[in-house]
Write a structure and sequence with these properties.
With 327 residues, the protein is an alpha/beta fold. Helix content is 23%, strand content 24%. The protein has helices at residues 198-203, 222-225, 251-304, 309-320; strands at 3-4, 17-19, 27-28, 41-43, 51-52, 65-67, 74-75, 88-92, 98-99, 108-116, 119-123, 132-140, 143-147, 150-152, 158-164, 167-168, 177-179, 184-188, 191-193, 227-230. The chain starts with a strand and ends in a 7-residue tail after the last helix. Pfam families: LRR_5, LRR_8.
C-alpha cells in the first residue's frame, strides 16, 4: 500500500481502530479518513511516509491516539485541520526543511503534542497559529536551523510548554519569540550559540527573566540549565560558565539600538515642535500665495496696458522688486 488516498475509508461507521503499520505508504492524501467518524486510533508507524497533505485527517473528531511514522519530510499547512479531541499525537524522527505556517491549525483539545528527535529545519512564522487547547506541548531533542517566529499566545491555551534538549544553530532575532498565557514553561538542556547574539537570547522570553538581575547578578536558572553550541571553544559548556559581560553585543544590534533611541528622541522632539512648525509654514504659505496673486494680476495688467508706455514702465519697475522679469 503506497498511498492512503482521499476518502479511502469513507463509510466506515462501526470501526474504531485502523491498523496501517508496516506498509509502504509514501503519501497521506487530503481527506484520507473523511467519513470514518468513529475512529479512535490510527496506527501508521513503520511506513516510509514522505508527505502529509492538507486536510489529511479532516473530519476526525474522536481520535484518542494517532501514531505517525518516522522520516516525514513534508507536513503541508492545515494537515491536521479538523482533527479534534486528540489525546496523543507524537511526531518524531522527521526530516523537515521547515515547519510551515499553519501546520497545526484546527488541531484542538490535545492532551499531548510532541515534536521530538527531529530535524525541524526553520520554524516559520505562524507554525503554531490556530493550535488550540493543549495540555502539554513538547519540543524535545530536535535540531533547529533557525526560529523565524515562535508565537504562543493566550489564544492557544497551552498549559505546559517544554523546550528541552534542542540544538539551535542560530539565535532568534529580537522580537521573534512570544510566549504568553502559558501556565508552566520549561527551557532546559538546550544548546544555543554563545557569540555576540547571546544578549538577544537572554532578552527573549526563552530566558524567562534571566536578565532581570539584582546588583549585576543574573536571576533565574536558564544559564545553569542550558549550554553553548558555538563558538567551538565553548561548545558543550554551561552558559553559566561564560563571562557574559565580556561578550560585546553584535554590531548590527548596537546600530539598531542606537537608531531606535535616536528615532525615539527625534520623534519626541518633532511632536513638541510640530505645532510651531505648522504655524510658521502656514504664515509663509499665505505670504507666498498673496505675492503670487499680486504678481499675476500686475503681469496681466502690463500686457493689457502695453499700449500705454508710462503705465507699463511703472508696472515693470514694481515687478522688479519681486525679481520678476517681463518679456
Amino acid at each position: 500500500m503506497a498511498t492512503v488516498a482521499s476518502f479511502a475509508f469513507a463509510g466506515l461507521q462501526n470501526v474504531s481502530q485502523i491498523q496501517l503499520s508496516h506498509n509502504k505508504i509514501l503519501r497521506i492524501e487530503g481527506y484520507a479518513f473523511a467519513g470514518a467518524v468513529n475512529i479512535r486510533q490510527i496506527h501508521l508507524a513503520d511506513n516510509p511516509t514522505v508527505t502529509i497533505e492538507t486536510n489529511a485527517f479532516s473530519s476526525l473528531s474522536n481520535v484518542d491516539r494517532l501514531i505517525l511514522p518516522s522520516g516525514i519530510r513534508v507536513i503541508e499547512p492545515d494537515a491536521f485541520y479538523g482533527l479534534e479531541t486528540v489525546g496523543y499525537l507524537k511526531l518524531s524522527f522527521m526530516d523537515l526543511a521547515s515547519l510551515e505556517p499553519y501546520t497545526f491549525r484546527g488541531l484542538t483539545h490535545v492532551k499531548l503534542l510532541s515534536l521530538q528527535e527531529s530535524d525541524l529545519g526553520i520554524i516559520r512564522a505562524g507554525a503554531f497559529e490556530g493550535l488550540v487547547q493543549v495540555e502539554l506541548l513538547n519540543i524535545l531533542n530536535n535540531k533547529i536551523d533557525a526560529i523565524q517566529e515562535l508565537n504562543i499566545t493566550a489564544a492557544n491555551r497551552i498549559r505546559v510548554l517544554r523546550i528541552q534538549g534542542n540544538h539551535l544553530l542560530e539565535t532568534p532575532e529580537s522580537g521573534s519569540i512570544m510566549l504568553e498565557g502559558i501556565d508552566t514553561l520549561h527551557v532546559n538542556s538546550n544548546y544555543f550559540p554563545c557569540g555576540c547574539h547571546i544578549h538577544t537570547l537572554l532578552d527573549s522570553p526563552l530566558a524567562n527573566g534571566t536578565y532581570l538581575s539584582h546588583s549585576g547578578v543574573p536571576a533565574g536558572d536558564f544559564l545553569s540549565k542550558n549550554y553553548c553550541i558555538s563558538p567551538l571553544e565553548v561548545n558543550g559548556m554551561p552558559m553559566s560558565s561564560i563571562d557574559l559581560y565580556s561578550i560585546g553585543r553584535c554590531l548590527e544590534q548596537v546600530t539598531r539600538e542606537n537608531l531606535e533611541a535616536a528615532n525615539s528622541a527625534i520623534s519626541t522632539m518633532l511632536r513638541g515642535q510640530s505645532w510651531n512648525r505648522w504655524l510658521q509654514w502656514r504664515s509663509e504659505h499665505n505670504k507666498r500665495s498673496q505675492e503670487t496673486t499680486l504678481i499675476s494680476a500686475v503681469s496681466s495688467a502690463v500686457r493689457f496696458l502695453a499700449a500705454s508706455p508710462i503705465i507699463a514702465i511703472m508696472c515693470v519697475e514694481y515687478l522688479k522688486s519681486f525679481n520678476i522679469k517681463i518679456s
